[in-house]
Amino acid sequence: MDVGTLVTRAARRYADRIALDGPQGTSTFAELGDRVQRLARGLLELGLKPGDRVLDLQPNQNTYVETDLALATAGLVRVALNYRLHADDWARIAEDSGAVGIIRDPRYDPGLDLPHQVVIGENYERIMAAGSVDAHHELVSLNYTSGTTGRPKGVRRTHRNRYASLMNMTYDVLGGPPGPDDVYLHAGPITHTSGLFLLPFLAAGATQVILPQFDAASVVDAVRTKGVTHTALVPTMVARLLATGESLPELRMLAYAGAPMAPEQIRQAMAQLTPNLVQYYGLVEAIPPVTILDAADHARDDLLASAGRPGIGVDLRIVDEEGRPVADGVIGEVVTRGEHVMGGYWGVAGDTHRVVRDGWLHTGDLGRLENDRLWLVDRKGDMIITGGYNVYPSEVEAVIAEVPGVREVAVIGVADPDWGQRIVALYTGTATPEEVDKHCRNRLASFKKPKEIHARADFPLNSTGKIAKNVLRAEYV
Question: Which chain positions lie within coiled-coil regions (predicted)?
Answer without folding.
Answer: none
